[in-house]
Amino acid sequence: MSRSSPRRALRALSVLLLAAALTLTAAPPSAAAARSGWNDFTCRPSTAHPRPVVLVHGTLGNSVDNWLGLAPYLVRRGYCVFSLDYGQLPGVPFFHGLGPIERSARQLDDYVDRVLAATGAGEADLVGHSQGGMMPRYYLKYLGGADKVNTLVGLAPTNHGTDLHGLSRLLDLVPGARGAIGSTAPALIQQLAGSDFLTRLNDGGETVPGVRYTVIVTKYDEIVTPYASGYLSGPNVRNIRLQDLCPLDFSEHLAIGLTDPLAFHETANALDPARATPTTCWSGLG
Prior knowledge:
Layout: H1 5-25, E1 53-56, H2 70-76, E2 81-84, H3 101-119, E3 124-129, H4 131-142, E4 149-155, H5 177-184, H6 186-190, H7 196-202, E5 212-217, E6 237-241, H8 242-245, H9 253-258, H10 261-271
Parallel strand pairs: 1-2, 1-3, 3-4, 4-5, 5-6
Helix pairs in contact: 3-4
């Protein structure tokens, strides 16, 4: 093998990983007008829904495309809804959530402060998809977010990482692959099962006092594998598999955050447990 062969293999693997992620986790860019109804900083929470909801997109997502389904769903139900972009890389538009997760959590910290200041609320609720369901846990655990957050809902979150159906082991066959991808798009490596970041995040307890956690997963998840790695252990945790609520739900990793009415209904239940209603195969369609 020539000296350049490992480098060519590394480039090919990087392209493969990014192409797969783009195909499976990102929707096409949309016009800013799609924000209609949310990210309205004049919104004031109602008595029925006193906490603003901050939506946290997944890897290679953004503040609009990831929430074209759920944001209007929550707005129609009377919530003040906001969404942020985080984890941007220089020169990479639309596809975010690639930067170091620690830095992304600081961006979330700043954004929640902005939302609370604008709305006058004392606490917010967070709803995140994929990385967006896991990254806020760093904010809650290490950046003081537990004092500002009531509820975290994770849709197919990467709480314990993913092995990508074993494909992550291919990185170890190419010398320097993990380091090269990690220096380019750190969040990709940080979300692999067994990463140093996830080990630190989960050590000493997976939850923090005072926050309610809901995890919603699908057994058809092709990105977070095994899908049960999204579950959390600890007080005030509810883990939900969509197929236990409706065996006919075939949503995979993208759909659970973008279009799934059962996931939307369970999210609404988690945000307002006092008014929760049972989830069936017909829930969330209204």
